[in-house]
């Protein structure tokens, strides 16, 4: 991704940046349609945009859950979106040997929350030279994320983003501590609020994670008011039938209205 900090933190519009897209790459047609719709919105609102899509879902409660359409197939779809729409793309990696593979197709490598302390994975991502977005573990304090930043920078890469996605609250809920956003910003990196995964209700007896998508705008409004540099929002035209994490995704039809309201908050605090 060109002009890393300029593109993310110091845009002419003064807006936050957005990472958004489906939870997983389900197929080329739907991924392209989602990307085209979001780009039409972010261009209109002057919001810097990074397309998000997981090429594979490695962390599933049930063995029968959807994990992907094939690594190379999904990565080529991400590559096509980046090339045809001229936007950066981000995807998760799960093992050290995936870093170089994914880096050949996308601009930003994302470290899932459960893996944010995996030293070999962080170093492998850093050594690709790509931007590395590390999701804060639900089990970690904001302050402890400085060590993830240090690992990546000590490996020779200073292009780091940190993303909050809530803290574990009991067995089946998460809660967001907004004090963590400015604390992580003190490490000198952009900080993002994941407005969808922070509303998950994990560890359900059904083996399928639940969620509270009706509160996505609430989480986002608070994050912008606190001064988050960016937002992470998973969105889909038909969340009820999405193949992964549909229970906590924002309906694509609601995205423009949500972002418009958030821009007003951003302008009020500048």
From TrEMBL:
Enzyme class: transferase
DAHP synthetase I/KDSA domain segment(s): 13-263
Keyword RNA-binding belongs to the record: no
Subcellular location: Cytoplasm
Catalytically driven reaction(s): D-arabinose 5-phosphate + phosphoenolpyruvate + H2O = 3-deoxy-alpha-D-manno-2-octulosonate-8-phosphate + phosphate
Pathway listed: Bacterial outer membrane biogenesis; lipopolysaccharide biosynthesis; Carbohydrate biosynthesis; 3-deoxy-D-manno-octulosonate biosynthesis; 3-deoxy-D-manno-octulosonate from D-ribulose 5-phosphate: step 2/3
Organism field: Pedobacter ginsengiterrae
Tree of life domain: Bacteria
Gene coding for it: kdsA
Enzyme Commission (EC) number: 2.5.1.55
Keyword vocabulary terms for this entry: Cytoplasm, Transferase
InterPro entries named among the record's database cross-references: Aldolase_TIM (IPR013785), DAHP1/KDSA (IPR006218), KDO8P_synthase (IPR006269)
Family to which the UniProt record says this protein belongs: Belongs to the KdsA family.
Keyword Cytoplasm: yes
Organism lineage: Bacteria, Pseudomonadati, Bacteroidota, Sphingobacteriia, Sphingobacteriales
Protein name: 3-deoxy-8-phosphooctulonate synthase
